[in-house]
Design goal:
766 residues, alpha+beta, eight-stranded antiparallel β-sheet, globular, binds alpha-D-glucopyranose
Length: 766
C-alpha cells in the first residue's frame, strides 16, 4: 500500500499521528523500548487478541522535524519517519535496528504458463499466493539471524526461509518445506552482530513472512487484510526483547507442579479396563508417571462433554481410585460439536446462536470425528462463557486438565470457506479474520472455565495458537511421526516456540504417526524428558510405544530418563516461577544466553534448560558419540563430574543409555528424591541441593504447588548464593508459606552433607 508524501504530523499524548497524501498513520510510544506502528485500514484502533489490558505507559519522548524526516526518540529508541510512511529504527547509540526497504518487492520468477500446465497435469498446486493488502519490507543489513515465528518446521535460525501464518492441520510428515503448521505467532527476533530487536505483527489475518528467501536485500511481511499494526521491541539482548514481547502478550503462568511430571497418552486406549491396567503397569514397571490422557475414545460417539457408558463402568470411581495412586486424568475436547438433535450441547448452541453460520445465516456444517459437526463461535464472550461452563461436566468426574485439539479449526470436508460468519466480540467477522484466533479463543474459554470452577491453576493443552495463547494454555506440536527427522526437529521447534512466548511446550514423545523403533524411543525419551511438557503419545494403529513395549534395555533407559526428570522438577518449577515474571522460556536455544557467539546462532542439536543445564541428546540413528558445543565458561559433565572449559566443541561418548548433560560451574540445583509421582513423598522438610563449584546464585520457591495463593504472597523464596571459595548460603528472603524447610541436604562432587536450617536460613561450607 502507498501512503504518499507526508503532509503534516501532530503529537498527541503518547502518539504522533501522520497525515500522508493517500492515507494516515501513527507511531505510538508504548514504553521506552516498545514502539507501535499503526495505520487503521480496517479499524481506527488496535483490535488485539494477543494483548490484554493497557500496556502503554507514560514515557518521555522527543519529537522533532529535520529535512524531510520526523524524529521520535525515547531514551532507548529513535524512530525516523519519512514519506510513504517509511519508518527506520535506531538504538540509543545511533546503531541501526531496522530500516524500511526503499525498493519494491521482487517476487521470485517461478513458472511460465507452459510449466504451469505440466505441473497441473501431475496434480501440483500451482496457485500462487494472492496479493497482500498490507506489507512491510525491511532492508536486510546483512548480519541478521531470525528466531521465533512459533512452531514452524526446519531449523532454529529462520533466515533464508519463508512461512505462512495460517493455522493448519496437515497430517503429512512435517518437513522443512512446510509453510505453516498449527500455530500462528507473528513475532520474531532479529539478531544482528551488535544489536537485537523484535518485531510483532499483531494481525490475525493470513500473513506471509519471507526471511530473505526471495531476495538477500530485504525481509518481507505481508498480510491479506486488517490493519498495519506492528511493534518494534528493543532491548539490550534477546532476553530483554523477549521480555518486551511477553510484557505485551503475557507470560506463561506458574502451572500446578504435577503437570511437570511424565504423562502417558495414546489415541486408542479404548476402555476403563485398559486405562486401569496401563496405570498398574506404570507402577509395576516403576516408571514414574503423573498423568494419563484420554483421547477421543472416552466420549460417547465423539460428542464433546459426554462419557461413553459402555466403555467405562464409572469414570468418577476410576478417577478417584487412580488418584489415590497418584494419577491425574486429562481429557481431550475438540471444538466440533456433533450435529445431533437431542444432544444437549448441540441443542443449546442452536437455540442461542452459538455456532458459526454461512453468510446466509444457516448454521455452518463441516465434519470432524463425530461426522457432521458445527463450530462454536469462540470469538463471542457469551460463547466462551458457555464453553467455560461446560468444563464442569469434566470437573465433576474428577478430570484434572483439558486437552484442546482440532482447533485450527480442523475440518474433514475441506477448509471452512473464508466467508463463514463468526463474531469478534460484538462485531460480525468472517473466518478469514477469526481463523488464526480460533484455538486461542477456545483455550481462553477452557482456561477461564477451569479457573472459575476448579480454582486451581488450570492445565490446558492446545494445538492451535495465536500470539499470547501462553496466558491460558500449554501447547504440543501436533502430529509428528516416529521418524528421526522429527526428533531432530523437536529441538529448534520447541526453542523457537519458547522465543515466541510459549514456554510450556512439548512434542509427542516417541512420535505420533508411524512406528517407533527401540532406538528412536530411547533417544526421544532422553531428549523429551527435558521438554517442559513431557508426554508420550501415539496414534491409533501405530506400534504401541509405552516404556515397556520394546525390551528390558529400553525400559531401563526410559526409566532412567524419567527418573532424572523427576529429580529435576524443583529446578523446572523454579524456572516457571521466575518465568511468570520474566517471560523467559524453560527450554532455550544457546543463542539466548550466548548471542555474541557465532557457534550458538545456528545450534540445532542441543539446548539449555534455564541457564544452568545444557542437554545434548543424540538425535541421529546409529550415533553413539555426540559432538557437543559448550559455550563460554566452565561446565561440569553431569554424569562424570569432569570439569570442562567452554567455547569449544567436544566429542562425548553417548552409548544408547547416555544423554550428554552439562551443568554450568556455580550452579545450585534444587532436586527431589525419587518418586513415582509428584507428591508421593514429603518434599517440604528437606531442601535438597546439588552444587557445582564456582560462583553462582539461585532463587528457589516453595508453595502448595497448585493454588493461586502464591499470587497473594503465599510462598517462600530462598536465595541461594555460592561463592568461589565454597561457601553456600541459603536465605529465606520471602516467607509467606506455612511449611518451611527444616534441613538442607547438599550434594557436591559425590559428597553429601546435611545441615539444620534456622527459619529457612543456613550457611554450608562445601
Ligand atoms: C489429532 C491430534 C492427536 C489425537 C487425534 C485423535 O490428530 O493431533 O493428538 O490423538 O487427533 O484425537
Amino acid at each position: 500500500m502507498y501512503f504518499g508524501k507526508m503532509i503534516s504530523w501532530q503529537r498527541e499524548g503518547n502518539r504522533v499521528s501522520f497525515h500522508f497524501e493517500k492515507a494516515d498513520g501513527r507511531i505510538e510510544v508504548f514504553t521506552e523500548k516498545i514502539i507501535n506502528v499503526f495505520a487503521g485500514i480496517q479499524s481506527t484502533e488496535h483490535r488485539s487478541k494477543a494483548i490484554e489490558g493497557e500496556k502503554a505507559v507514560e514515557t518521555p519522548f522527543d519529537v522533532s522535524a529535520e529535512n524531510d524526516e520526523v524524529i521520535i526518540s525515547t531514551a532507548a529508541v529513535t524512530v525516523k519517519v519519512h514519506d510513504d510512511f517509511k519508518v527506520d529504527f535506531y538504538n540509543a547509540a545511533g546503531e541501526v535496528l531496522c530500516r524500511d526497504y526503499r525498493g519494491s518487492r521482487r517476487k521470485m520468477d517461478r513458472i511460465s504458463d507452459v510449466m504451469k500446465e505440466l505441473l497441473l497435469a501431475e496434480g501440483h498446486n500451482v496457485n500462487g499466493e494472492e496479493e497482500d493488502k498490507i506489507s512491510v519490507i525491511k532492508r536486510m543489513e546483512g548480519d541478521e539471524a531470525f528466531y521465533g515465528l512459533g512452531d514452524k518446521t526446519g531449523f532454529l535460525n529462520k533466515r533464508g526461509y519463508d512461512y505462512v501464518m495460517w493455522n493448519t492441520d496437515n497430517p503429512d510428515p512435517q518437513v522443512d518445506s512446510f509453510k505453516s503448521l498449527y500455530k500462528s505467532i507473528p513475532f520474531f527476533i532479529t539478531l544482528h552482530r551488535d544489536t537485537v530487536f523484535g518485531l510483532f505483527f499483531d494481525n490475525p489475518y493470513r500473513s506471509g513472512f519471507d526471511m530473505g528467501k526471495e531476495s538477500g536485500e530485504y525481509y518481507y511481511y505481508g498480510v491479506k487484510d486488517g490493519n498495519l499494526d506492528y511493534y518494534l521491541i528493543a532491548g539490550e539482548n534477546m532476553r530483554e526483547v523477549l521480555g518486551g514481547y511477553t510484557y505485551l502478550t503475557g507470560t506463561t503462568p506458574l502451572p500446578q507442579r504435577w503437570t511437570l511430571g511424565h504423562q502417558q497418552s495414546r489415541w486408542g486406549y479404548m476402555s476403563e479396563a485398559e486405562i486401569r491396567s496401563l496405570a498398574a503397569k506404570m507402577r509395576e514397571c516403576r516408571i514414574p508417571c503423573d498423568v494419563i490422557h484420554l483421547d477421543i475414545d472416552y466420549m460417547d460417539d465423539y460428542r464433546v462433554f459426554t462419557w461413553n457408558p459402555d466403555r467405562y463402568d464409572s469414570a468418577e470411581r476410576m478417577m478417584e481410585e487412580l488418584s489415590k495412586d497418584g494419577f491425574k486424568i486429562v481429557t481431550i475436547i475438540d471444538p466440533g460439536v456433533k450435529l445431533d438433535e437431542g444432544y444437549p450441547v448441540y441443542d443449546e448452541g442452536v437455540e442461542n446462536g452459538y455456532f458459526a453460520t454461512t453468510p446466509e445465516g444457516e448454521i455452518y456444517v463441516n465434519a470432524v470425528w463425530p461426522g457432521d459437526a458445527v463450530y462454536p463461535d469462540f470469538g463471542k464472550e457469551e460463547v466462551r462463557d458457555w464453553w467455560a461452563s461446560k468444563q464442569q461436566f469434566l470437573l465433576d468426574r474428577g478430570v484434572r486438565g483439558v486437552w484442546n485439539d482440532m482447533n485450527e479449526p480442523a475440518s474433514f470436508k475441506g477448509e471452512l470457506p473464508l466467508d463463514v460468519v463468526f463474531t469478534d466480540e460484538e462485531e460480525r467477522a468472517d473466518h478469514a479474520r477469526m481463523h488464526n484466533l480460533y484455538g486461542h479463543n477456545m483455550a481462553k474459554a477452557t482456561y477461564q472455565g477451569l479457573k472459575e470452577r476448579d480454582g486451581r491453576r488450570p492445565f490446558v493443552i492446545t494445538r492451535a495458537c495465536y500470539a499470547g495463547t501462553q496466558k491460558y494454555s500449554t501447547a504440543w506440536t501436533g502430529d509428528n511421526h516416529s521418524i528421526w527427522a522429527h526428533l531432530q526437529m523437536m529441538i529448534p521447534q520447541l526453542c523457537n516456540l519458547g522465543l515466541s512466548g510459549m514456554s510450556f511446550v512439548g512434542t509427542d514423545v516417541g512420535g505420533f504417526g508411524s512406528d517407533c523403533t527401540k532406538e528412536l524411543m530411547c533417544r526421544w525419551v532422553q531428549a523429551g524428558s527435558f521438554s517442559p511438557l513431557f508426554r508420550n503419545h501415539s496414534a491409533m494403529g501405530t506400534r504401541y510405544q509405552e516404556a515397556w513395549q520394546f525390551d528390558e534395555e529400553t525400559l531401563d533407559i526410559y526409566r532412567r530418563a524419567v527418573e532424572l526428570r523427576y529429580h529435576l522438577i524443583p529446578y523446572y518449577y523454579d524456572l516457571f516461577f521466575t518465568g511468570e515474571k520474566t517471560g523467559l522460556p524453560i527450554m532455550r536455544p544457546l543463542v539466548l544466553h550466548y548471542e555474541k557467539d557465532e557457534n550458538a546462532r545456528n545450534c540445532n542439536g542441543e539446548f539449555l534448560i534455564g541457564e544452568n543445564l545444557l542437554a545434548a541428546p543424540v538425535v541421529n540413528q546409529g550415533e553413539t558419540k555426540k559432538m557437543v558445543y559448550l559455550p563460554a565458561g566452565e561446565w561440569y559433565d553431569y554424569w562424570t563430574g569432569e570439569k570442562l572449559s567452554g567455547e569449544t566443541y567436544i566429542l562425548r561418548d553417548a552409548p544408547l543409555g547416555t544423554c550428554p548433560l552439562y551443568v554450568k560451574a556455580g550452579t545450585v540445583l534444587p532436586v527431589w528424591p525419587a518418586q513415582s509421582y509428584v507428591g508421593e513423598k514429603d518434599t517440604d522438610t528437606v531442601l535438597m541441593l546439588e552444587v557445582f563449584p564456582g560462583e553462582g546464585e539461585w532463587e528457589h520457591f516453595q508453595d502448595d504447588g497448585e493454588s493461586f495463593a502464591y499470587r497473594d504472597g503465599v510462598y517462600n523464596q530462598y536465595h541461594c548464593c555460592l561463592t568461589a571459595d565454597g561457601m553456600l548460603s541459603v536465605k529465606c528472603v520471602h516467607g509467606g508459606y506455612e511449611k518451611r524447610y527444616e534441613r538442607v541436604q547438599v550434594t557436591c562432587g559425590g559428597r553429601i552433607a546435611e545441615t539444620k536450617m534456622n527459619c529457612g536460613n543456613c550457611v554450608v561450607k562445601l
